[in-house]
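In line with agreed milestones, the collection of sequences with tokenised folds has grown. One record among many is set out beneath this paragraph:
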Amino acid sequence: MSDTKKVFPRQSGPISSLSLFCSLAIALSSLAGFLITESWGQSFPSNTENPDSATEETREQPLFPEDAIAPPPETFPPDNSIPPRGYIPSPFDDPPSNQFNTYLLGINDAILISVPRFPEFEIATRIDPQGNVNIPLLGAVEVNGLTVEEAKTKISLELGARLLKEAPEVFVNLESPRETVVTVLGAVSKPGYYVLPFGSDPVDAILSAQGSLEGADLREIIVRRTLVDGTILERKVDFLTPLIQGQPQPELFLQGGDAVIVPELELGEEKDYDSLLASRSNIAQPFIVVRVLNYPGRGLGQIQLPGGSTFVDAIAELNPASDTSNLRKIGLVRFDPEQGQAVTQILDGKAAFLGDLSQDIPLKNHDVIVINRNLLAKLTYGLNQFTQPFRDILGFLLFFDQLSTSATDLFNPSVNQ
């Protein structure tokens, strides 16, 4: 039996060419995969011993080159730390001296407006009740509450925007300022409204109200100004400290609509306050009225003394009779508005004349001096029996008037006991 082998003849044609093309494509694909694997291994080397180190090295590589990104602009200087969240920069605040010493145009100010090379716009006029000036050909322009420089700028811009090719140079002159009507309140003799000359200061306003009272605090005088937009400016002015130190008084010029408020001394501040100097200054009321209870049946008398007078000045003015008066025992009664009661103090007139400052105390307006020895005894008993507080200084003075004109035995201890 013989082996039989089947021999297939070689085929040629389209089938043989297709096989060759497939083999070549498989070879090229294997070569590309090998090259990619080698390239990946070089870019990200594997480390089976410490895989974390490979990850750290990969993270350290920047995603983009440093020179490809421009640094951000500096918001804060390098030597300063960045402010915390919620930081709000402080607003710009013009110094109070500039705000109060800059004149603001107002209603009834007389101004002269001129434009070089354009005489047709020149006019002398007053600011009307609406706060406008009426410029020829241009019409009404509101300048109320502006400074002179601001008015120049506004008129120039209006002319350039509405009538001329460009904003021209404009001059504004204050020809006649309006009246300075101010309000004076607080611890002054006569609070109210006062018309002052142009350039007046708070001292002029206080003197127009006939001066400050004894309890006024001249270190904390308030000047209040209301702007056109409703903003209220306040400045405190100290007129006593410069007087003590021999320095010039602060400069502050009032304008129409200002309010000058003179506060009273707060409790506990009397020890640090030079009341005697304040009462003798030209800011204080020039005169005080001291009531005198001297003779029965004559009512309350009174004497007028210069501001800052003391107990000795009053006794010297009264010249009491020695037969009915005891100079060693003179009563001084003062109304205390905090308690609504009369406070009595017995003073030694002779010791005061000999220089005892503890007996020569400064007097206040509406103090009552009781010289007659009999009236002083009645007064002491009457004040002990009268426990109802006085409503005001008027009730205090009426009490003494009734005391002096009443029957002899009205407050006599022997009758009422």
About this structure: The chain is about 30% helix and 20% strand.
